[in-house]
Every structure is written in C-alpha cells, then in structure tokens.
Amino acid sequence: MAKKKPATKAEKAHMGRVAALGCIACRVKGFYGTPAEIHHLRSGQGAKRASHYETLPLCHIHHRTGGHGVALHAGQETWQGIFGTEHQLLEQVEGLLRKQEGRDGQ
C-alpha cells in the first residue's frame, strides 16, 4: 500500500484553522473551545482517508478515547446518531470557517 503524501503548506494551514475551532461534537453539546485534533472523514470514502480539506475538529474523547457512543472511532453509527453525520458536521465546520473569514454572506 502506497504511503499518503505529506500535507502541503496550504493543507496544513487549513487543518490548523479547523483544529482552532475546537471540538465540533462538544460544540453540538453547548461547550465551546475544547482543544481538538483532526479527524479525516471516512464516510463515503471506502478504505481510503478523505482529503485534508474534509476534516473535522474533535477532542480526543470524541475522536478516539471516549468509548462507544462517545468516541467516533468506538462506534460510528451510534456516534453519528448523537452528534450528526460526518457530512453534516463538515457543513457546520465550513460555515464556521466562512464566518471567521468574513465570507458568510452577511
């Protein structure tokens, strides 16, 4: 299996902006600014990881360590029933980024 190419400078900058938003799952629950790591979308990707532009900011608990129903990687279907699908959350993240950049259409 071929190694994934390292992220470009632009991709790294984008992922930094995404992570700086704080955990999107915590935000759904009304908590803001929780430090986040990057989750690459899996939904609709088959076995491969999504691009560096299709990423969600998740705290380690909501990403990988929180257990079933808390961590995405511990039970994706249950998790998405609680927090929303990866694509719904990606739309929220993209909206937050547009708002930060002053491109929210308002």
Radius of gyration: 14 Å
Strand order in space, largest sheet = 1-2
Strand pairing plus helix content: what structural class? mainly alpha
Total strand segments? 2
- As residue ranges, the low-confidence spans are none
> Biggest β-sheet, characterized?
2 strands, antiparallel
- What fraction of the residues are assigned to beta strands by DSSP? 5-15%
CA-based shape: globular
- Straight-line N-to-C gap: 46 Å
Helix fraction bin: 40-55%
Order of helices and strands: HHEEHHH
Structure annotation, total helices: 5
Which whole number gives the mean pLDDT? 89
Please provide a written account of the structure.
The protein is mainly alpha-helical and 106 residues long. Helix content is 43%, strand content 8%. The chain is globular and about 35 Å long. The chain starts with 8 loop residues before the first helix and ends in a 6-residue tail after the last helix. The relative contact order is 0.16.
Question: What topology emerges from the helices and strands here?
Answer:
Layout: H1 9-20, H2 24-28, E1 37-40, E2 55-58, H3 60-65, H4 76-83, H5 86-100
Antiparallel strand pairs: 1-2
